[in-house]
Input
Amino acid sequence: MAIIRCPECEREVSDEASTCPNCGAPLNKKNDRAMSEMPENHMVWAIVTTVCCCLPFGIMSIIQASKVSGYWENGEYDEAMEASEKAKKYALIGTVVGALIIIVRTAMEIVARR
Ligand SMILES: [Zn+2]
Output
């Protein structure tokens, strides 16, 4: 437990309190974030990446994407945000690698025809 300063009345209060006992201002950051939207899990992009582009990165992306809602429901907001970011990153890498493979294959076919 730590002592923080209330942003409203600037009196010292416990960081465990969800509201300031002096002025009633909300203090608990987790309560604030619970009100906000769950981060995007990028599941659709992850599946598209797996099917169309690059299987290994697509699967890594799906694994991260599937963790987002679980973390969020358990109140592990930082982990949920992190999983969301990783899902996006792997899907992006998968898309880029998949696109490069298609370009290289196409180029090799053009060369082979000559
Ligand atoms: Zn206060």
Remarks:
- The chain is about 65% helix and 5% strand.
